[in-house]
Structure formats: C-alpha cells, structure tokens
Amino acid sequence: MLGSVSEADDAVQEAWIRLSRADTTDVENLAGWLTTVVARVCLDMLRSRKSRREDPLTWQHEAGNDPEHEALLADSVGLALLVVLETLAPAERVAFVLHDMFDLPFDQIAPIVGRSPAAARQLASRGRRRVRQAGSIDETDRNRRREVVEAFLAASRRGDFEALLALLDPNVVLRADHAAVQVGATTEVRGSNAVAETFAGRARAAQPALIDGEPGLVWSQGGNPRVVFGFAIANGKIVAIHLLADPDLLAKMELTILR
User: Each residue of 211-254: pLDDT tens digit?
Assistant: First the structure.
C-alpha cells in the first residue's frame, strides 16, 4: 500500500493506538475493523504525501482474465508495480490494492475511500489498467524496456538533455523514498523537463541491472547496492522513476548487475 517499511510500521502503530482508545465491544469482526482502520490511515498518509510532495505492493484477478497471464504477471510485478503505483492517485491506489491483492469487495472499500461501490470499482479499474499497461510480460517488450533504460543511462552520463526528453513521458514523475532523500535525492520531481534536468550529466556511477527480473539501474558502494532506480515504461516512454534506498526493501530484491 505504501511502499515504505517505516511508513507501514507507522500505519500499524497508529491503528493499534486507535484500537486502544476505541470501544470495540460491539465490533463483530475485529479483523475487518482493523483492516478498515489501517486502510484509512494509509489513504491519509498517501494524500499527505501528495499535498506536501514528500517521500514515500501485489494483485489478484478480475473475471475473464487469462489465469496463466495473471500468474506470470504476479511473479513479475515487485518493484515494477511499486513504481506504477506511485503514478496513481491515492484513492485509486488504495482501491486497487484492497481489491486486487486482498480481494475486498467494493461495498467494503467504498466507505474507506469515501465513494460509492460503483465509484470504488472504477477507481480500482483505472489503477488496474495502468498496471497492465506498464507491466507487460512479453519478452520482446522487456528487451525494449531494457534498451530504454540503458539509453536513459547513456543520455544521463553524456548530459544529453534532448535525448533524455525523448525518452521521458511529458508527465513523468520521479520519486525517492526517505532513505534516498537522506543521501541527497529530491523527494519528488514532476514533468519531463524537470526530470531531465535532474539527471543530465549525472548517474555516472549507476549500473544497468535486473531488479526482480525487470530492467533498472543500481548504484553500489563498496560492492553493496545502495540505491535502486526502478522504471515504469509504457509505449516506449518512461512514465515513472522510483529511487529506493531503504535497506529492508533492497535486501528483499533480486539484483543482477548487467556488465
């Protein structure tokens, strides 16, 4: 939901505080009550991120989809899904995660996001379309995405502003988690011009890598990965970049440096 271990801990802590202060003697389904509270806390945190532009994850099914395709995509999302989720509005993100990962019905999701069940369904559907658009499992497409990432790295190292612009979607968003901000990254940058300016002449020490099987970049220090660059790519354009330096998240990723 949040893509941040520290923020997830904060959300759970807040839920326990609310539980300790609430009279739950009439609550028939405590697990459901806690799920609702945690989801609302996450939604508030996501909205707060958007308003202050600071820092700051898998899915299930919809009737009629190809089960084999779903299984393959579920195995491949990981960081790619996290990056795509960063492009969604908070309510879309919450509705998508609660329904497609946790299989909550829309009549339960609706009061959490403050919408009708039909509107909650639309929110999840929009999020699902974005994930599928950026999460194709076709091997040819994966190779093309690798080419885009490597072209981005080369343009960044050369300081080729125009080449960077050609690779970026006009509405691209660059976001960094709290740990990446602590080592000098900007929390959020939006728009192709601003993102191109951020990377032009930089990323010299980054290396192409496969991150949970998906093309990306890794900056290492002393042989240890310190920052991961995750990319969401749609129609040959980079739509989102996420810088991750949270040690807990990096430890869970399968990283393969491409020489």
Answer: 877 889 999 888 889 999 989 887 788 988 989 898 887 887 88
Phi/psi for 233 (5° steps) reads: -125, 130
Angle (CA) 36-23-104 rounded to 5° is 15
CB distance 157 to 206 below 8 Å? no
Structural domain count, the chain: 2
Tens digits of residue pLDDT in 74-95? 444 456 677 777 778 889 999 9
Q: Are residues 12 and 130 in the same domain?
A: yes
| 144 Cβ contact partners less than 8 Å away, ≥ 6 residues apart | 236
pTM of the predicted model as reported, rounded to 2 decimal places:
0.58
In angstroms, rounded to a whole number, what is the distance separating the alpha carbons of residues 133 and 200? 27
- How many Å is the maximal CA-CA distance in the chain? 64
Q: Are residues 128 and 77 in the same domain?
A: yes
